[in-house]
Amino acid sequence: MMNLYVDMDGVLAEYKKVPLSALYEPGYFRDLMPVETVVEGLKTFIAAHPEVRVSVLSCVLSDRPYAEEEKK
């Protein structure tokens, strides 16, 4: 089986240019809007290629207690 890894921040979800401190505020990642054209394109790809396992990859700031849960 082939794997396709898709980034979250700036690909599946919008990228907001903000001060670094904003990344440490509760709700920052939870409130990012999806990039609908990318999400729909990925859904189309998944439907057309069931033999490909698609996974989302994203970095989590380890010193930010909210990031992991919000990105899930």
What's the short version?
With 72 residues, the protein is of the alpha+beta class. The protein has helices spanning 36-48, 67-71; strands spanning 2-7, 52-57. The chain is built from two helices and two strands.
Descriptive account of the structure:
The protein is of the alpha+beta class and 72 residues long. Helices cover 25% and strands 17% of the residues. The protein is built from 2 helices and 2 strands, in the order E-H-E-H. A two-stranded parallel ribbon has the order 1-2. The longest helix is centred in the middle third of the chain and has 13 residues, at 36-48. The two termini are 24 Å apart. The mean pLDDT is 93.
Observed structural traits:
2 helices; alpha+beta; two-stranded parallel sheet; 72 residues
Indicate the topology.
Blueprint: E1 2-7, H1 36-48, E2 52-57, H2 67-71
Parallel strand pairs: 1-2
**Shape, per Cα inertia axes:** elongated
Rg calculated over all Cα atoms: 14 Å
User: Which secondary-structure class do the elements indicate?
Assistant: alpha+beta
Mean pLDDT: 93
Biggest sheet architecture: 2 strands, parallel
Q: Point out poorly predicted stretches.
A: none
